[in-house]
Design brief:
This protein is of the alpha+beta class. Helix content is 27%, strand content 23%. Strands 1-2-3 form a 3-stranded antiparallel β-sheet, with no helix packed on it. The mean pLDDT is 77.
Amino acid sequence: MKFSHITITMVIVVMACLYSCKPKNTANAVSADAAQKAYVPPGKYDEFYDFVSGGFSGQLSVYGLPSGRLLRVIPVFSADPQDG
């Protein structure tokens, strides 16, 4: 049986793709250590803050990082009954 160069190349590419899809070690990603690193107890401050545009809502949201808590929604171009 005679194989062409294209057939051999395709077999090598498919084998490389299947090898790269092999499951990696995911024990570290779902361990309790990852949750402990991102946990910020109530009353403590986050290390970083993320200011995110609200898009068409005309608001600015402030998130604490690494906890991911929504700290405040600031109305910029919208009427808010709380702030006037």
